[in-house]
Amino acid sequence: MALLTEEKISCVLKKLNGWQRKGEQIEKTFVLKNFVNSMGFVNKIALLSEKADHHPDILIRWNKVSITLSTHSEGGITEKDLILAEEIEKVA
Fold it and tell me: Is the pLDDT of residue 1 over 90?
């Protein structure tokens, strides 16, 4: 999987509400109702990630879940990251 161009990353991020580029990764923090909802959301992300064989970094803080995506084996952002971000948006 090849790294994406700056143009492609910028174009897709415009369509992904709240996702931002931070260096060689993209990230977003989701605010949920409470801790139980946060954990339910994380479990949904886990299932998506396993299916895609692509795993995000996840930080859980009571009602906030921060997701960071990067294709570590490629050293940056690939199509895998953008596809998983789109899938995460669908379950958010």
Answer: no
